[in-house]
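[#protein-structures] MJ: dropping Transposase here for a structure pass
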Amino acid sequence: MSRWRVLERERGDVRPKALGGERKSPRIDAHTEAILEALGSEADRC
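AK: finished. structure tokens for Transposase:
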């Protein structure tokens, strides 16, 4: 039996699951104040 047929039987669908996603935001958001402070007046140009 092919792996596609197995997927169809197990999940009812052969389409791939969603991949990864963005994972760095929470770490960056946790340090927002420090980042903006380090940028100083340059932060306004972004």
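MJ: nice. The chain has a mean pLDDT of 84.
AK: one more thing. The two ends are 55 Å apart (CA to CA).
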